[in-house]
Amino acid sequence: MSRVSEIMESLEYGPSVEDSGAVRAWLRQYAPFGHFIGGRFTTAGNIFTSRDPSTGEALADVSQGSPADIARAVEAARKAQKTWAALSGSERGRHLYAIARHVQKRERFLSVLETLDNGKPLRESRDIDIPLVARHFYHHAGWAELRDSEFPGQAPLGVCGQIIPWNFPLLMLAWKIAPALAAGNTVVLKPAEYTPLTALAFAEICHEVGLPPGVVNIVTGDGQTGAALVEAKLDKIAFTGSTEVGRQIADRLAGSGTPLTLELGGKSPFVVMPDADLDAAVEGVVDSIWFNQGQVCCAGSRILVAEAVASRFEDLLRARMARLRVGAPLDKSTDIGAIVDPVQKHRILAICAAATAAGAELVGGESGEGCFVAPGYLRNIAPANPGMEQEIFGPIATLSTFRTADEAIELANNTRYGLAGSVWSESATVATDIAARIKAGVIWINCANMFDAAAPFGGYRESGFGREGGRAGMRDYLVEPKAKPAKEPPASQPVLLDRTEGKGGEIDRTMKLYIGGAQKRPDGGAMYRVPGGLAPLGSRKDIRNAVEAAAKAGRWAAMGGHARAQVLYYIAENLAARAEEFARRTSRQEADAAIARAFHYAAWADKFDGANVQARPGHLVNVIPEPFGVMAIACPNTQPLAAFMSLVMPAIAMGNSVVAIAAQDDPLVLADLYQVFDTSDLPGGVVNIVTGVRGELARTAAAHDAVAAMWHVGDTDGLAAVEHAAGGNLKPVWSPANRDWTKDDAQGAVFLRHATQWKTVWLPYGALPAGSGSAAY
User: Fold this and answer.
1) Which of 18, 114, 263, 462 is catalytic?
2) 193 counts as catalytic
């Protein structure tokens, strides 16, 4: 028998396995499982088996959903939606509160079931996942109560299709279902085929609390079931999963008008500065990537360490890694459980093999029997190594070094993803500076993998768009007030200038492109006729030149809201001084509207604020609106001046630089606007204007990787083409309705929201109260 002193030296634990008898009895009683449609379980059919990844043992047979099953679920949700939406906010909130209470009452049961089905350690299911599930339903019970006062004039979307992954099965369900129900929507949810069991247990909870039939419907199955859900006639799709599948969904929905939220892959940087608390940073690595087997999209899997402390950091990291316990997930002393499925394990090992073949050195990462992989990291790894570029989604990190803060930022942003990041420094100035410069939707300072229902979560770039959680997440399940649409006449076929024309003075005015603050001839020199003169026929190369000029105007965002406001006020003042001239070019209404838009968005430039949200105790959680960077805007073919100013002014007020595609048939008034910009201290490249065939130019801009967001006002066919092109790098596309742009429709904040993306920054603050850890909900 070991002595106490020996145990204190080895820190080894005896077995402490959670009893799974009640869960297994429940599975024996109810399996095989059908789908949950219209408030009841259907008869099981066409079954597949859900297995315990740690042993390979069969847990339960589950039904494979067909298109017919999806259709029945959508019909049930559609039937229930109007009645559910007609309930008062208080009544919907009470249903959500009841769900939260039942989740708490069944915490132990749900924790064990989640661990059996997913393979994660019980301590993660018990202390993190299930408490957060309850927190989401409590939080959104409050939003249900406050919806009408906090989101005036907004309404539920209708029936929402939701697809969730296998890494946080019940938590991802709560992230999606809670805000959808609070807003007044009904849902059809498909859990991952590897981990359907807690979703089915949740369905039973919905029945127990008396949730009206059809409000929540759950259809199990594989990717074919998910594809059928995307194909169904729905009012929104919310997907969490791989970037590849997200791109396919975006392409399938292009032009449909169906709102889409995508929370996709990540390759998040974990930046350790020279002055960091290295022991704390090592624990951050453990929390971020090893305790959850690396099966979390926002794991800090790219460790970037200052060269000055890299050796000491690695010593601490290896020592800590050697103490981690890999084993049975239901054992309370297990640190690292099982990989969800052999397919995923083989993928992890294949990427590690490719990484080492390309020159990296793997420390740890041994493959055990069954679905177990020991923690490890790849060192001496080049930026182009497969292990550095691909999302491993396992307990394997990469470790590389940097010398300066600028180099750290360059390495951190050297990825197509932008989901999250973690920064470690004892200097608040250094930490917040690094956090501000990392292009990601969530940043943790001196902490990692912190989540809360009040804190929006979501990514930049190819990590997706839209947010889940908090006010932003609620808004994504509501319909914004819409302006009265106005019909847009189809653009005419451009009539090119004949070589013999214009020599006798019959051409009144000739316009040029406006790129980088200068007027330029189009690539190739082609011109086409417009009322009152000639406009340049812009090409793909002209769009590329405009995007390049916009990308160089980064200092515009760095000026701050107050400085940008002064420039917009100056634009408004100069426009007002030339009001009569612009009125003659267009109309009095358009000229007045253009001036009003400049004044209006100058007022907003330093007032569109974020928020400090009440999340976990001991943390400041700041939700900050950030510009996308380079935006492309395809203007409508009507009211060329008023529409242009209504679209471009909110974008640049928020710090974006813009490539604007002018009204195809009547852009000439914008030639006068160039002069206003040039005399109003607007930096070159902030606004770039290209004329020509709008559809071709818009598709080119949408496909450009350096364009981070796209607005398109126009016909459905043109929008579909733009959305297909934008799917290449998953940029968000917004299509506000064409309208009478001379009218003030009180939608300024709507445009500002679509000109920004939310960054959530977590910062430890004050002394952490006793009992306020991850399970303190």
Assistant:
1) 263
2) no
